[in-house]
Amino acid sequence: MTRPPHLLYLAWGFPPSRAGGVYRALATVNAFAAAGWDVTVVTASRETFERYTGADASLEERVDPRVVVRRIPFAWPAQDTDVRRYGALRVALPPVWARLRRLADERPFPEPSYGPWRRPLAAAARAVHDDTPVDLTLATANPHVTFAAAHDLWRATGVPYVMDYRDAWTLDVFSGRTTTRPRSRVARWQATLLADAREVWFVNRPLRDWHAERFPAVAERMVVVENGWDPALLPPVPPATPHAGALRFAYLGTVTPKVPLAELLEGWRTAMSDGRLPAGSTLTLGGHLGYFAVPQGPLAEILADAASYGVRYAGPVAKAQVADFYADADVLVLALGTGRYVTSGKVYEYVATKRPIVAVHDPANATTDVLAEHPLVARVREVTPDEVARALAESATLAARQDETTHAALDELADRLRRDRQLAPRVAALRPREDS
After folding, report:
1. Lowest CB count within 10 Å: 154, 251, 305, 346, which one?
2. Which SUPFAM superfamilies does this entry report, sorted A to Z (predicted)?
């Protein structure tokens, strides 16, 4: 009897990580397992996420029980806040220590903090292959060191690999500028990795096209694999009903300095004070403040100052509680950083709730394409407080005029944007022609 094909999945952020790409990673391994593959994941230790970035323990329960997860240590000295572990140089001359640390990090692979992980990750990948031969490696970024480990295994054993770019490596998705010189180590590494990859995945068309233009020899192997929403992670949210009184607005997502928080809150204050929003309306923001376990103080202060005009910060929301968070909202606010290449995983969940959406982001963002057929979107023409106030008022009108035709259109759109529908064609295409 032939054995099932074996997928090796390399990822830094995997449950219980709460990093932005964790849902894509979780859905990807589950999709391969559901399609009959044996799946082995190599990722960082639980302590890594619990200590440095914050963790969502409920996510581990969602990993298909057929998936084998191997965890290896990950050291992150730059994020270590325990001064008792600092050496004499770090205590006496922090900038010198930081510069030397970065040089040491980048020696194995040109990625600060993550470079040293290349060797243990590559060793773990080889151990998996030696134990049970691997048919395909799928590495997801960032960090991009996972790509290097996949390439190391390919070079040693011939196992083909797929690169899943959740974001971009040498492109600043907000400014559109290239971040490296053409002959830098990063640029050379990227060119090598792309040239040898079986497939390269991107989450939206602009990102795929930017890379295809610069690496035309690889263009035919570059594909768009959109994000999507996960029925297993988002139970059905009760449909919203037409509403004309005080409205409950809500934002859910990681709040970073790239999110136009100041414009959103000023626009909210304006719309509330001049009566464009019904009296008593509220805006609740849920999610982590920043990328790490310790919240960013300035962001917390901004939110605290806004409490006097109906703004509330609910803190992080565990994935198991997300459906309840959405159910408590009449209108959802999608606030994103500016940039043509910027996309969002959260927008797909927003679509699945079938609620009106206030799109507080640059109209040129790739997210605009996802919402193109959504009938209940209030869009800003530019990200300014005045435009935010106008869009908030428009969304109040949308919230009052929902009907069965609108809900039917949203049902069709949400079904089309399920994550499993985005992944299924690639899972099928990558299956070995003859299982051995």
Report:
1. 305
2. UDP-Glycosyltransferase/glycogen phosphorylase
C-alpha span between 268 and 113 (Å, rounded): 39
Tokens of 180: 């490296």
The pTM assigned to this predicted structure is 0.87
Q: 140: which residues sit within 8 A by CB, 6+ positions away?
A: 9, 10, 11, 21, 24, 25, 28, 146, 164, 166
**The predicted structure's pLDDT at residue 1:** 36
Distances (CA, A) of 37 to 77, 316, 367: 37, 34, 32
Specify whether 425 is located in the same domain as 375. no
Name the residue among 232, 311, 321, 300 with its Cα closest to residue 269.
Answer: 311
CA angle, residues 342, 115, 78, in degrees to nearest 5: 85
Residue 28 lies in a domain: yes
What residues have CB less than 8 Å from 383, skipping those under 6 apart? 260, 263, 338, 360, 361, 362
CATH number at residue 70: 3.40.50.2000
Rounded alpha-carbon distances, angstroms, from residue 261 to 20, 254, 299, 336, 341: 18, 11, 8, 9, 20
Q: How far is it, in rounded angstroms, from Cα 343 to Cα 356?
A: 19
* Torsion region of 109: left, alpha or beta (phi above 0 gives left; psi -120 to 50 gives alpha): beta
Q: Does 243 fall in a domain?
A: no
User: Which residue ranges in the chain fall short of pLDDT 50?
Assistant: 1, 293-294, 435-436
Which residue type occupies 7? L
Distances (CA, A) of 400 to 8, 67, 240, 329, 356: 49, 46, 10, 14, 10
* Residue 268, H or E segment: helix 261-273
Residue 239 within any structural domain of the chain: no
Over residues 123-135, the pLDDT tens digits come to: 999 999 999 999 9
How far apart are alpha carbons 168 and 59 in whole angstroms?
A: 25
